[in-house]
Amino acid sequence: MKWIRANLLAYRRVLDIPLVVGAGFLAYLLLAFITVDRLEVMPLGMKRIIEVNRFLDRQSRGTDSKDVYFVGSSVSLEGVDCGEVDKFLPSGCVSYNLAWTGASSRQWIMVVPSLKTAKPGMVVLGLDLLELLDTQPISDERLAVAGWWKFVPPEDLDRFKDVLNDNERKLLGGRGVRDLLIFRAFPPGALDGYFRETLRPSLRYEGYETNFKAPWVRRKAVSPPAMARGVNRRLHWVKERKPEDMKATLKVLKAILSYFGDLDCKVLLVLTPVHPDLIASMDKKLLADVDRTLTELARSNDAVFLNHSTLLRSDQFNDALHPSDSGRQTWSCLLGRIVREQLTGASQ
Questions:
Q1: What CA–CA distance (Å, rounded) separates 295 from 308?
Q2: Do both 19 and 58 map to the same domain?
Q3: Number of domains in the chain
Q4: CATH number at residue 59
Q5: Which residues contact residue 210 at a Cβ distance below 8 angstroms, ignoring those fewer than 6 apart?
Q6: CA 272, CA 331: separation in Å to the nearest integer?
Q7: Per-residue pLDDT tens digits for 273-322
């Protein structure tokens, strides 16, 4: 009997190891759940995406206002002041800037279901030229956020299945243990972002997550040497772009425009302003192909395409990509006039 007891004790000691590991893993998942799901400790960029979706959900419960929603990358975030746009809009119509940093047309799939339920009068899609030519898969972090907070209903996920890869479909499909494992990087990322970004006096992050009127961040232009370095970093990349580089983006845009085709709303595709030094370095045939392709895409999907890539001067940029106060004013006022014309059928 002693040897049986000894063997049982030995087995228990062996089993203690996986039990401890399992308990530790469960505790880790619980901590991730509490920190991210309940307390929403995460980088500001992630929190803004969640707040965009929440804002649209609130809009869907309001009156049938037919408002105007701008969606885009950081170029639109920095360059569109909806306070200026609103000055040109018909009475009772309001515009909102829902752009976020690093957004691409592929990422817009995460919020177009909420846009649809908000019953927009117009959706303005700001096409960042660099993103247009270099569509990357949606990051796991953003997919996990969209899946965990249920941005995309199953029927809409099925509608976009042909333009999403397996990983994107899986993570957008709903909550899972993998989401909690991804969330482990959010608290350190929030801390890093706080010290690296929010404490810089040249940046404005007060209320950034829920500012849907004028969410611009950069208070002033970078120094001339920094501007030159930023432009030069992108010169080699843009010189190598070819028309076929935008095929993946066009497929996504077609799916989104088809989705919006079910709505009684107008859609504007806007090629956002590009720093003149970058435009000057790009192949003219490529730029002509981009213009022609987007014009045809808009025409075939009952939308309107506007090419604003050459709208701003060099001194109207805060850095190599983002408009300054002057650039924001110029672009926002032009957009306001165009939006009014499209909504009313009369120019101002």
A1: 13
A2: no
A3: 2
A4: 3.40.50.1110
A5: 48, 51, 55
A6: 9
A7: 999 999 998 889 999 999 999 999 999 999 999 999 999 999 999 999 99
pLDDT tens figures, 233-262: 888 888 888 888 889 999 999 999 999 988
d(CA 111, CA 149): 11
State whether residue 30 is helix, strand or coil: helix
Contacts of 342 (CB under 8 A, 6+ apart): 122, 266, 268, 304
Task: Round to whole Å and give the CA distance between 108 and 95.
Answer: 18
**In a shared domain, residues 241 and 149:** yes
What is the per-residue burial (b if ≥16 Cβ within 10 Å, else e) of 230-241? bbeebeeebeeb
pLDDT 10s digits, 94-122: 999 999 999 999 999 999 999 999 999 99
Strand 304-307 relative to strand 68-71, pairing: unpaired
Residues 7 and 102 in one domain: no
Give the C-alpha separation, 304 to 300, whole Å: 10
Q: State whether 221 and 330 are in the same domain.
A: yes
H/E element holding 292? helix 284-300
Residue showing tokens 């070819």: 242
Query: Among 348, 253, 340, 337, which Cα is nearest to 303's?
Result: 253
Shared domain for 103 and 32, answered yes or no, is no
Residues 118, 263 share a domain: yes
**pLDDT tens digits, one per residue of 132-160:** 988 789 999 999 999 999 999 999 999 99
- Where is 247: in which H helix or E strand? helix 247-260
For 259-288, give the secondary structure using H, E and C.
HHCCCCCEEEEEECCCCHHHHHHCCHHHHH
Task: Report the alpha-carbon distance of residue 269 to residue 301 in Å, rounded.
Answer: 11
Q: What is d(CA 45, CA 107) in angstroms, rounded to the nearest whole number?
A: 13
Nearest to 49, CA basis, from 112, 106, 98, 115: 98
Query: For residue 335, what are the domain limits?
Result: 41-344
Instruction: Clarify whether residues 101 and 204 are in a common domain.
Output: yes
